[in-house]
Amino acid sequence: MSIRLSTGGRLIDRTQTLSFTFNGVRYQGYQGDTLASALLANGQTLLGRSFKYHRPRGVVTSGAEEPNALMNLGTGARFEPNQRATTTRLFAGLEARSQNHWPSLKYDVGALNSALSPLFSAGFYYKTFIHPRPFWKHIFEPVIRQSAGLGAAPTQGDPDTYEHYYATVDVLVVGGGVAGLAAAREAVAAGARVLVLEQGEAWGGRALVDGGDIDGHAPDLWAAQTVAELAQEGAQMRLRTMAAGVYDHGYVLAYERIADHTPGDGRPRHRLWRIRAGQVVTATGAIERPLSFAGNDTPGVMLASAVRDYLSLYGVACGERTVVVTNNDDGYRTALALVEAGCEVPAVLDARPDHDSDLVQQARAAGLRLLFDTGVKKVEGGAHIQRVIAAPMSGNGPSETIACDCLAMSGGWSPVVHLWSHCGGKLLWDDARAMFKPDLTRPPLGAQGQGFVVPGGAASGALLAHEALEDGANAGRDAVRALGLSPASTPLAQVNAQTDETPLRPVWIMPNGADYALRSKAFLDFQNDVKVSDVQLAAQEGFESVEHTKRYTTLGMATDQGKLSNINGLAILADALGKPIPQVGTTTFRPPYTPISMGAIAGEARDELFKPTRKTPMDAWHDDNGAQWEPVSDWRRPYTYTRSGESMDQAVTREILNTRQNVGLLDASTLGKILVKGPDAGAFLDLIYTNMMSTLRPGRCRYGLMCTENGFLFDDGVVVRLNEDTYLCHTTSGGSDRVHAWMEEWLQTEWWDMKVYVANVTEQYARVAVVGPQARTVLERLGGMDVSREALPFMAFSDGTLGNIPARVHRISFSGELSYEIAIPASQGLAFWQACLRAGEDLGIQPYGTEALHVMRAEKGFIMIGDETDGTVIPQDLGLSWAISKKKDDFIGKRAMERSHLASPDRQQLVGLLTENPKTVLPDGAHAVEGGKLPGDAPRPIGFVTSTYFSPTLGRSIAMALVERGSRRMGETLAFNTAKDVWVRAKIVDPVFFDKEGARQNV
Amino acid sequence: MSDSTRMPLATITRAPSRGMITLRGDLDNLDLKVAASTVAGVDMVSTRQIAWGDGRGMAWMSPDEVLIFVPYDEVPSALDTFSKSLSSQHHMAVDVSDARACFVLDGAGVRDVLAKGTPVDLHSAVFAPGELRRTRLGQVACALWLRDETLAEVICFASVAEYVERWLDVAARPGAEVSYLS
Question: Which sign, positive or negative, has the C-alpha torsion A86, A88, A93, A98?
Answer without folding.
Answer: negative
